């Protein structure tokens, strides 16, 4: 069960819960009208919402919540009756899913995957006309890493050893500090790694996990599902979503005073949904804090390639801690990485890894055991994770095209971030911090009282009310800030920077027109 | 925490736990010798085995347990010092991982996956020289199902709708009863589906799940991880691992008398590790029983293609219940399917689905929410699941080769099962039931008292002792029966039928020679 430590947070953090996901109240063995059976029937099931695991009922995941369900309905309406709505397409800005909005995959990565899905291609004389020479070479090398060249077999539960070696080399090259294949656990995207660590650390609701607010709701959902307590620390919007150690310390002490054993600190860098990139000094403070307070540092570093400003760069927490002289013996640190983000955006491939350092062999053995219950992560995702951490190098045939594709995507994302940021800031009563990294804007809506009352009247959080009105008027799907948590009494939306660049001007025009009408209707 | 209801079971079901996974005892913030850091250091971590989630410590998964770790050590020894052991290769008969032992993938499936990993291939003039025409056509059709043709995007949380339609058609064709795409949840292999249902049904250790004993340890592990109680029912070895409703009823009543709310019945058909195929009448009894007792029926049907005897055929529980006139309104039924098994054996692809029928819309909404927290299963795995349920048809260019590959694999598996069964039955004091289906033999070892005492003397379960001796002498890796559960006082091993056919005679020779020496040493 999710317990929020701060009463202030408790009151409003997830105040829109009833709007995010509507739970039909039912009584035991009641008869239902089934929407799922082909012929409509009534259901008598021994299982009802009242008798399932209450942690599941409590869990929320706004990124795919009610607003998205509504968008899907509208999309169907558009297909069935074109011209029936005030827009002709739905623009999904709710989720970091680049390829769904037209971003193209990196050719080299896909060539290697294609070859390894059907290794007989490597022997075909026509193959060289269809694939680059370095993708063929890479596929051969990877095939040699796989026992029996069996790309269809379960691998070692941590993933194929040779791929983990490549990833460790990539980490070492990135950080300038050594990395070890034995520390890498390949996972189906970053999410299963997060779940695994929450499952490991949480024993009961008396165990707490410090999470930033706003946060990516995987964290709140996972803590809820595993029965722990989310201990919120607030990022400071006024300083560009700054992470103040004094705030973290205050919340930690508050939690401890309530009997909570705080086990870990989650840091998302670059920030989701907030888009800030942590400064090196700030990261050092965080490392010191975790060591001093005996906290595991859970570092969500899935946006490490997504940096859009010149004055910031990504530093992994492993690099920071090693540069401070701290080793495996000093800090328990888990870094999460994914193939879904970066310039590649291969969300559907479900590849990723966690680098687990600073745990005893006995605890690592337990992590290995949990990984082994699920046998292994998917092999194409494992391969892709190794490619992302070990892309083409200068001199490789694919290097030029790879590099052009990567730079094209990242520079376009930077331009889109800036255009949308400027657009939000041009709106009446809206302020928006810079997207330094990641894939999101998190503008604050200073909503008029009249709008807040109108939202309350329909039992909806004001930001959810705004998001719904925006969707109905423009087809643009954003997620209400209440799905991520926010300082009580403030209202935000999360909007991705992912629509293709040629669509951005149209989005801005629609957004501005909507906002003007909204303000005209509700201005106090 | 896993509680076993039957005291008899409690005593011995997992009696070899200490041998399956050795847990290093540690005290809080003790210093450890780390095997993971590149330079050996001592670890001070806020996390110890005593302070992690005790459900994880309790959980066991013998299929990748101590015996496999030992085998990996021996394999390394062989590589480093060839000729140093009495055998020259390790034969992994511990896990249903066909391609790791040389089984080749189905060409058509891999062609489609290869094309969809790199769709520009579909436009290449050389492509037709490398791929069959129906794989190109199928890849085109699947591409059209995917919004924006984006094979790298997250899909709908249940999986791509068009693929679910294909799977539903495949189920309908198999069963002769309609199936609905809305009921299909695509998953990364079958395991995440099982976890999802356990998470849904288990609220506390007072919730019980009826599981066959012997069982596939995913079930015991998942029940333990989710904090429930495994309620064992014993399969009857004397009748070919028969499932007697009277035994299930007895265990159900026993559990209820102890205050356990029994929520579901797990049936594995064809059986793992036991290899039996349920008769239709027996399945009807099970359906009636679940309806009468208000139990969800969790049907593990991942071996549905693996039937090796003429007098048995696979019937899904959905088909059985529908043929009895029971619909969605009468029985809550979940069927698990996987791309890892069958004739295709694509374990590393982590594809699968669960078909969820007979739950209220409100409960299904909760299942959908949990699925959405992890976004979606991997797209290549989703595609493969659709191919498995909708393979080439008569008249398609690939049909002949597909059909020859499939029949070749299945008939060879049947021959291997029979050869190994005969071999086990020829051993002194060993009896082995027929492998009617699935991928395993589960012979019973009637061990001499002297062997049992020798095992006890080294604090090992007698079957684990035998398995270890077998491995050390022959390189053959099998899993002790204690990892699956067995009637107390009986001892078994699970051995897959998966080594390639030309290796079977050698395996049998080594097995017989070992067993004779073992019996000569320990015969009473």
From TrEMBL, chains A, B:
Pfam families: Aminotran_1_2. GO terms for molecular function: L-alanine:2-oxoglutarate aminotransferase activity; pyridoxal phosphate binding. It comes from Zostera marina (Eelgrass). Keywords: Aminotransferase, Pyridoxal phosphate, Transferase. Its cofactor is pyridoxal 5'-phosphate. Residues 149-497 form the Aminotransferase class I/classII large domain. Belongs to the class-I pyridoxal-phosphate-dependent aminotransferase family. Alanine aminotransferase subfamily. It catalyses: L-alanine + 2-oxoglutarate = pyruvate + L-glutamate. This is Alanine aminotransferase 2.
